[in-house]
From TrEMBL, chains A, B:
It is found in: Cytoplasm. Binds 1 zinc ion per subunit. Binds 1 Mg(2+) ion per subunit. This is Phosphoribosyl-AMP cyclohydrolase. Residues 30-103 form the Phosphoribosyl-AMP cyclohydrolase domain. Homodimer. It comes from Antarctobacter heliothermus. One of its GO terms (biological process) is L-histidine biosynthetic process. It catalyses: 1-(5-phospho-beta-D-ribosyl)-5'-AMP + H2O = 1-(5-phospho-beta-D-ribosyl)-5-[(5-phospho-beta-D-ribosylamino)methylideneamino]imidazole-4-carboxamide; 1-(5-phospho-beta-D-ribosyl)-ATP + H2O = 1-(5-phospho-beta-D-ribosyl)-5'-AMP + diphosphate + H(+). Catalyzes the hydrolysis of the adenine ring of phosphoribosyl-AMP. In the C-terminal section; belongs to the PRA-PH family. In the N-terminal section; belongs to the PRA-CH family.
Length: 121, 121
């Protein structure tokens, strides 16, 4: 069946959450938002493109930082209201320069930092 | 630092998205929503507990189906507006009886079904 981005379920802002997972190691790297046009741009270009809620603009991941996400596979969930992209991530995915945004764990009631920022090249 | 569920960033419905990932195989299983009380219940009980938007009620995953999610690790992202739980999943995570909700891929413009429902016991 041909895929049509407009058949996904977007929220009242026209957005759908998208989880990015490392296609090689399997780590969950980040979650951000797409609108229908960002979905189409991602599939067309093979470069993961989100919608920035703070900037209200397309956010071609890594366009300024170089920390691009090359699309490996694009998945839709059962309810069609969440996306999963498997990516080849260059450098850190997180704006804090860490590989993943999920670097804080909660263990025995305390927050624990699991990873440090990556060294700049 | 002691973790306080009220320090997370919830949306205007009081909800935060939570990604569930298989702690063993690394597959992303599903995404659902928690409120502050569901976060506290999950950490207290070790049983992943969401907030059902359709039923407007706590949803102790697997309580009726037996397809429970045992909490292995609880993670918070950099912006404190998304959660990741690593889980030990009994049976399928998806209501369609598939292991993961992300069983549909988009490849060369077409939707492709990647996995079939699991056989009932």
């Amino acid at each position: 069946m041909a895929f049509d981005p407009t058949t996904l379920k977007y929220d009242d802002r026209g957005l759908i959450p998208c989880i990015a997972q490392d296609a090689d190691g399997g780590d969950v790297l980040m979650m951000a938002w797409m609108n229908a046009e960002a979905v189409a741009m991602t599939l067309d270009s093979g470069r993961v493109t989100y919608w920035s809620r703070s900037r209200q603009a397309f956010w071609i991941k890594g366009e300024t930082s170089g920390h691009v996400q090359e699309l490996v596979d694009f998945r839709v969930d059962c309810d069609r209201d969440c996306l999963l992209v498997l990516v080849r991530q260059t450098g850190p995915a997180c704006h804090t320069n860490r590989r993943s945004c999920f670097y804080t764990a909660v263990r025995e009631g305390d927050e624990v930092e699991l990873m440090k920022p990556m060294a700049d090249k």
